[in-house]
Each structure stands twice: as structure tokens, then as C-alpha cells.
């Protein structure tokens, strides 16, 4: 297939303006965004994206998980489309670029093709996957997981947020539950542009990360149950302190992750303490352990050691425990052909690039199971993400979108 000419570029001003316009919806309290999945703000962001897609002449599809599919027709409509996209939902204290760059970068490809009068053999579909973040409803990458057949749709409809609201009911409430069956679409290839969410590209002064692999992940939700008691009058040897147990598990997770350097990571993020009173020893704690590695054997070994360590800690403190795995995917190897298209695009456009392993989970990780898939990454300032201070430059966004543009259009095959 013919490669696009090196002068083929997206409109970087329009892309940046679109990102800034989307950021006005669901503003955070410190310059970022709080546009959690299936909230009113999520619905408003979807409406804006839909209006932009319709203005670009795209036909919008919507499946039963609320995933949006905006199609630009190809010369041969029966051919499977090339999909491109990411997600519009954010963390409670999220940035303006995580996910959004990938969705609006995909839209910018279509806008640029329209302006240039370029047609492709395969259709191109710009996608907004529902609930990639997993912040409000666990697990992460929920809609793409159902699409790929690794999560059960009926089950995820029943998942609840911290207020007891069900995913399925909230999807209907905001008006974004479609009628299309999930997973029936044929995909020629899928490309996802994303900020790195780590410091490597910026530290090394590299324009583009060519993502070859994705780390595997496990989320373990742990509940420790001790006994509530007065902090002043309960002797130290008599305490069954669930808070102390949690503290020791946090230290355990860190130590185990350090044993598998350089690529393994682990931490406790979400934490709840009951009754959370200043003069009551914690009778119960609930927290989530997040461990990741690009090697399945390492991920499994970390999991085993953590479970064994929790048993030892709880026995010593005379407290009970429960462990539930609430999220999991194995390490990912992205499609060599799609990875080559990304690498070739970076070289053609004159951008510096390097291979990189994604430390975060992305919708591409699930879609890779059912279609050839690859990812493009651009730097972010100080590697900071999942934080309202998350920042990228307009030039980084443009470089990533240019490479995405070339990889998608080459795969969709320019006509004429």
C-alpha cells in the first residue's frame, strides 16, 4: 500500500482548540477535569463530540455499552474499517489530555482528510470507549473489555459506584445506551494515541513513543476486619487494629514491587477506614492494591507473595481478611504490522522516536485480542497524569496526531 506523503499533517491549531473546548466540560477544581463516566458531565462531553462528528459528515453508531463509533465511509464500504480513538471520561482529579487527545486526534484525522479531499479504501471509525478509567465503576477499560469478550455485559451492568448506583441504570439515565450489540463490529485495525503518563519520553527528549507492549495488571481489593475500640483506654497488646494491618500491607506491596525492578510497579491507591473517627481504633479497612508488570510470570509471582504476606500480617495482628480480584489483564504484545506503521510514520515525518512499554492500561490492550492494534505516545510534562496538573505542549500533541494520521491513513489505504 502507498504511504502518505511527508507533507500530510493535521491542523494542530484546530486540534488544540478542540481539546481546550472539551476541557470546559466537567472542570476540576485545579485546572483539570472531573468528567467521570456516566455523569451528567460525561453526557455533555459526548454531546459535544457528537456535534463535531456530525459536522464532519460522520455517521454515529452507539452500542449497548454506550461506546460511540463515528464512521467516515470508505470507497469500499464492505471492507472492515480502521478504528481510531480512546476515551473522554476522566479521573475525579483528571487532566485535560488523558484519553481526550486520542479521541479528538482521531476526529482531527477525519477533518483533515475532508479538507484535503482524500478518500480511503477502508472506512475510518473514530471511537469513544465508555468507562476506560474505572474510577467510578471498576474495572477499568470496561466497554472495550466487553467488546473483546473478556468481561460479561450483564455483570458489568450490575456494578455499583460508591453511592450504590448501578452502571446499567446510569448509562440509561444519561441517555447513552445504544441498541447495537457489543462486539459485533469487524475491525481491520485499531490505533490509539495517548500521552505517555510517564517521564521517559520527556526525559530523553523523544517526540514519539512507539508502543510495542503493554504491562499486565491486577487490582486486588482487600478488606481487613479487626475490632473497633477506644484509642485511649485499650492496651496496645489487646488491639486488633485493621488500620495497622493496612499500613503493613502498603509497605509489603512496595517492597515486593522493588524486588522485581526495573519494570514492575505496585501501590495502594484507594483506601477507606471505618469508622474513621479520631479516637477509635479502626475496626475495618478496605483498599485496592494495583500491581503491574510486562511479564506474566512476574505479575503472578507478585500476586502470590502479596496474598501470602497478607495472611502472615493478619495472623500476627489477630485480624481477618478478604481478597477480591476486581481487575486484571495479561501483558500485551501489540501487532507487529501496526507497530511498524507507527514507527514508519514517525521516521517519514522526521520525528525522533523509541520503542516503549505502556505502564498504564488502555482500551487498545483489550482490542488487541480481537484485532491488529498499536499505540502512539507523546510526552507529558514530568510524566504526570491522573492529576489536574497534567500537561502537554501543543507541539507534542501535533506530533502524536501527525504520526497517528499517517499510520491510520496508510492502513486505510489512500485512493487515487
UniProtKB/TrEMBL annotation:
Coiled coil: none annotated. InterPro entries: Amidase_Cbmase, Bact_exopeptidase_dim_dom, Peptidase_M20, Peptidase_M20_dimer. Gene3D superfamilies: 3.30.70.360, Zn peptidases. Residues 215-312 form the Peptidase M20 dimerisation domain. The keyword Plastid does not apply. GO terms for molecular function: N-carbamoyl-L-amino-acid hydrolase activity. This is N-carbamoyl-L-amino-acid hydrolase. It comes from Mesorhizobium ventifaucium.
Amino acid at each position: 500500500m502507498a504511504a502518505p506523503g511527508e507533507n500530510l499533517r493535521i491542523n494542530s491549531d484546530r486540534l488544540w482548540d478542540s481539546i481546550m473546548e472539551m476541557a470546559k466540560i466537567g472542570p476540576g477544581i485545579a485546572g483539570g477535569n472531573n468528567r467521570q463516566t456516566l455523569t451528567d458531565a460525561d453526557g455533555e462531553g459526548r454531546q459535544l463530540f457528537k456535534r463535531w462528528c456530525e459536522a464532519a459528515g460522520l455517521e454515529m453508531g452507539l452500542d449497548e455499552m454506550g461506546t460511540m463509533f463515528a464512521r467516515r465511509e470508505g470507497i469500499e464500504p464492505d471492507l472492515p474499517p480502521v478504528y481510531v480513538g480512546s476515551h473522554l471520561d476522566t479521573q475525579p482529579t483528571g487532566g485535560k489530555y488523558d484519553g481526550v487527545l486520542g479521541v479528538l486526534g482521531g476526529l482531527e484525522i477525519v477533518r483533515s482528510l475532508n479538507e484535503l479531499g482524500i478518500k480511503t479504501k477502508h472506512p475510518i471509525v473514530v471511537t469513544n470507549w465508555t468507562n476506560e478509567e474505572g474510577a467510578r465503576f471498576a474495572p477499568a477499560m470496561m466497554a472495550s473489555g466487553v467488546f473483546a469478550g473478556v468481561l460479561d455485559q450483564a455483570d458489568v451492568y450490575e456494578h455499583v459506584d460508591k453511592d450504590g448506583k448501578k452502571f446499567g441504570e446510569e448509562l440509561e439515565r444519561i441517555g447513552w445506551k445504544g441498541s447495537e450489540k457489543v462486539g459485533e463490529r469487524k475491525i481491520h485495525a485499531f490505533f490509539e494515541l495517548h500521552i505517555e503518563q510517564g517521564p521517559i519520553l520527556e526525559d530523553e527528549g523523544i517526540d514519539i513513543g512507539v508502543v510495542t507492549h503493554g504491562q499486565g495488571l491486577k487490582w486486588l481489593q482487600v478488606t481487613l476486619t479487626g475490632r473497633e475500640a477506644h484509642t485511649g483506654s485499650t492496651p496496645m497488646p489487646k488491639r486488633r487494629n485493621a488500620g495497622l494491618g493496612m499500613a503493613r500491607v502498603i509497605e509489603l506491596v512496595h517492597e515486593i514491587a522493588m524486588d522485581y525492578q526495573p519494570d514492575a510497579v505496585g501501590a495502594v491507591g484507594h483506601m477507606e477506614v471505618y469508622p474513621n473517627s479520631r479516637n477509635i481504633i479502626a475496626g475495618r479497612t478496605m483498599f485496592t492494591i494495583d500491581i503491574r508488570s510486562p511479564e506474566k510470570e512476574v505479575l503472578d509471582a507478585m500476586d502470590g507473595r502479596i496474598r501470602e504476606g497478607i495472611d502472615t500480617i493478619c495472623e500476627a495482628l489477630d485480624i481477618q481478611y478478604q481478597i477480591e480480584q476486581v481487575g486484571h489483564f495479561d501483558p500485551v504484545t501489540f501487532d507487529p504490522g501496526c507497530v511498524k506503521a507507527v514507527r514508519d510514520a514517525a521516521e517519514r515525518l522526521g520525528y525522533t522516536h523509541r520503542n516503549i512499554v505502556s505502564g498504564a492500561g488502555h482500551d487498545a490492550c483489550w482490542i488487541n485480542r480481537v484485532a491488529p492494534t498499536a499505540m502512539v505516545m507523546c510526552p507529558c510534562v514530568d510524566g504526570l497524569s491522573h492529576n489536574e496538573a497534567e500537561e502537554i505542549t501543543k507541539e507534542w500533541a501535533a506530533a502524536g496526531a501527525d504520526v497517528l494520521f499517517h499510520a491510520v491513513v496508510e492502513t486505510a489505504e489512500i485512493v487515487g
